[in-house]
């Protein structure tokens, strides 16, 4: 049991744990995060659009009804701002849709909208003091917040961090980054999944198929390392770790995780997956 706990926490430092904990270092399953605020903003947008429709249709709810609903459900943010800031995880907000430098050339914006390497390097540099270990530690922390604390704010942050790493293709092609980020990440992920009940994958982790899709992206990026690396050492290191994860994935959850080559072949056969070239 002790060794399993070490595997789940070996990158977490006291400083990193305190940095994301609520002000009083106590949380519950209801503790919020920056992602809850995002959901509120999306809901407000939906309500606003529905309100516009209601005044021009036969919808039984009128504009006044929506106004009251808005005020009751969402405008309370200002009243509870102090309470929310106290009982709120201090996660670094990960915006996967803004994964490029806004001043970049169009071709770089297109590239880094898919390849998250620019965002990964930026976050490690600015939010994690240049240390990949701090990033890995937060991946571990957010997972434990879900696993032990039953708090889904931890799940949302964990999902974004996992995809951020899986989709950073360019960074993966460098030996230093592979040894400090990607190989440890695959090991961390395997240790985390080992603690999940067999039905946990189907009940929680497959929402939107995010984990399966993230791991497919990771597999493809590892496969593509062969085209960028100067030697086979890097590819062999990454593919060996991925092979172990793939075997565990299938034995534990009964899901077959295709290899990167299989994913690429499947995409070639599916015309809908063919890349679209846009001239600007």
Shape field: globular
Task: Please describe the biggest sheet, giving its number of strands, its sense, and whether it closes into a barrel.
Answer: none
| CATH-assigned fold name of the largest domain | Serine Threonine Protein Phosphatase 5, Tetratricopeptide repeat
What is the element string, with H for helices and E for strands? HHHHHHHHHHHHHHH
Overall mean pLDDT stands at: 82
Rg value: 21 Å
- Number of separate structural domains: 2
Helical content band: 55-70%
Could you tell me the strand content as a percent range?
A: under 5%
CATH architecture label of the largest domain = Alpha Horseshoe
What are the segments in which pLDDT stays under 50 over at least 5 consecutive residues?
53-57, 59-83
Helix tally equals 15
Number of strands: 0
- Computed structural class: mainly alpha
Distance between the termini: 57 Å
Q: According to CATH, what is the class of the largest domain?
A: Mainly Alpha
């Amino acid at each position: 049991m002790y060794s399993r706990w070490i595997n789940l926490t070996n990158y977490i430092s006291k400083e990193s744990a305190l940095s994301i904990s609520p002000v009083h270092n106590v949380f519950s399953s209801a503790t919020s995060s920056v992602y809850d605020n995002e959901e509120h903003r999306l809901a407000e947008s939906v309500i606003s659009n529905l309100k516009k429709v209601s005044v021009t249709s036969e919808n039984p709810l009128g504009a006044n009804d929506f106004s009251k609903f808005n005020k009751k459900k969402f405008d309370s943010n200002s009243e509870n701002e102090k309470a929310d800031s106290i009982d709120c995880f201090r996660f670094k907000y990960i915006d996967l849709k803004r994964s490029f430098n806004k001043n970049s050339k169009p071709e770089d914006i297109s590239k880094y909208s898919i390849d998250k390497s620019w965002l990964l390097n930026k976050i490690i540099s600015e939010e994690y003091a240049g240390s990949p270990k701090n990033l890995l530690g937060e991946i571990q922390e957010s997972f434990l917040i879900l696993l032990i604390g039953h708090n889904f704010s931890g799940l949302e942050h964990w999902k974004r961090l996992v995809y951020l790493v899986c989709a950073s293709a360019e960074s993966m092609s460098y030996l230093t980054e592979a040894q400090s980020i990607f190989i440890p990440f695959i090991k961390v992920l395997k240790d985390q999944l080992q603690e999940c009940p067999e039905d946990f994958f189907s009940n929680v982790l497959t929402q939107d198929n995010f984990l399966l899709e993230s791991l497919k992206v990771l597999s493809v990026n590892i496969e593509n390392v062969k085209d960028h690396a100067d030697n086979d050492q890097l590819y062999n290191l990454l593919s060996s770790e991925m092979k172990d994860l793939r075997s565990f994935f299938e034995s534990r959850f009964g899901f077959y995780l295709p290899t990167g080559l299989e994913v690429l072949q499947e995409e070639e056969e599916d015309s809908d997956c063919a890349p679209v070239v846009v001239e600007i």
